[in-house]
Amino acid sequence: MNFIEYLSCPPDTVMLMVVTLLLLMLSAMMSASEVAFFSLQPSDLRAIKQRNTMASEGVLRLLKNGDSLLATILVANNLVNIAIVICSSKIVDTIFAFHSATVEFLFTGVLVTFLLLLFGEILPKIVAQTSNVKVALLLAQPLIVLRWVFYPFSYILINTSGRFGKMAMPNNDNISIEELADAVDMTTEPESEEQKILSGIVAISSREVEDIMRPRIDIKAVEQTMTFTEVKKVITETGYSRLPVYNEDLDDIKGVLFVKDLLEHISKGDEFGWQRLIREPYFVPMHKKVNVVLEDFQRQKFHMAIVVDEYGATQGLISLEDILEEVVGEISDESDVDESFYKRLNENTYLFEGKTHIVDVIRVLDLDDDIFEDVQGRAETIAGLMLEINRNFLKKGDEVSAHDIRFIVEKMEGHRIDKIKIIVKNNE
């Protein structure tokens, strides 16, 4: 049974075919422009800006209002696609005679869908994805014209979708740290200063106070019974602007002494009762999140907090500067002394401070990130790493090894490992 009969192809139909072809090209242009403009990276935009041409200015002008650009593309593309469907149906009806409405529907639907998908969507988007800058520059001026032509439709679309979006938007605007970290990685260039700072901001949200605090053994403080002369000596030696004040030992912190509070009394002698200038201390648990502590600092105007464990014993100290350094890197001022944590003695030998973090040692020695993973345990410093390897207390001159790297205790301060010599095996 013959379902389709060929009729003829009059001149009007040929003209309609030409119009349909032009519409298909316009549909392809809209699809390509959508991918090209919205796949531009910051580096692409910088390159476009440097061209300083009419086309580059057009691209930048269109991207200033991304919603209007997208609405223009969608409105134009849908109107063009509707026109293609109408023209195609008219062409098919003129050229062919169908003896079944179902066959006519299937034939027209398959033909139009194939043309629109292949030439109006897939191929243009592939080209635009691989040459987004060139396509964006090429289509910038036509899109500016179309944005003006379709402005009323775009305006209605933007405002209507905006209202429905607000109604449908959930009240919970929170995103996870993992999502924020992924967003930072996708929207910034690797190893850029911007990427490092944004990554630091994300990192403090997942880190605890004990990860960045100054340990108890490194706390510089004054005892409540000290004379004013002794207090001034400690201030001069440390160079700190704030010092914890304790009674008998660091587990009994009474407050914080601000050096600026002493300035007007600097000429007074030991009879001066400096203890009355002590301010209330701020205590934080060692497992509190760093970003929460930063919020507390901002809200309560604190710059320093005493870190305590679940029993109330002092474990360390954290300052606003410690938190900021996690984001922007080391901060130094004119009062800081050289805090270099290592010295290179020769080609393969280094002298490190025992409190140096393992990650810093790995970076200096240019080792694999996971080289000590099998022996590190819960240690964070190289002194702790030596204890993990040895499983016993060490004394000056003791040596341990891991993965052809020798660690030698060079200096002790009481039971604390102060200096460690590291010898890296020469593999050449």
State the secondary-structure class.
alpha+beta
Task: Provide the domain count.
Answer: 4
Rg result: 35 Å
What distance lies between the first and last C-alpha atoms, to the nearest angstrom?
84 Å
How large is the share of residues in beta strands?
15-25%
Helix run count? 16
Estimated helix fraction: 40-55%
How many DSSP-defined strands? Answer: 14
Order of helices and strands: EHHHHEHHHHHHEEHEEEHEEHEEHHHEEE
Low-pLDDT sequence parts: none
Mean pLDDT: 81
**Sheet with the most strands: spatial strand order:** 10-11-14-13-12
Shape type:
elongated
Q: What characterizes the major β-sheet?
A: 5 strands, antiparallel
Structure description:
With about 425 residues, the chain is an alpha+beta fold. It contains 16 helices and 14 strands. The chain has helices at about 10-40, 40-50, 55-65, 65-95, 100-130, 130-150, 150-170, 175-185, 195-205, 210, 230-240, 290-300, 320-330, 360-365, 375, 380-390, and strands at about 5, 95-100, 215, 220-225, 240-245, 250-260, 285, 305-310, 315-320, 340-345, 350-355, 400, 405-415, 415-425. Strands 10-11-14-13-12 form a 5-stranded antiparallel β-sheet, covered by helices on one side. β8 and β9 (about 315-320) form a beta hairpin. α1 (about 10-40) packs across α5 (about 100-130), α2 (about 40-50) packs across α3 and α9 crosses α13.
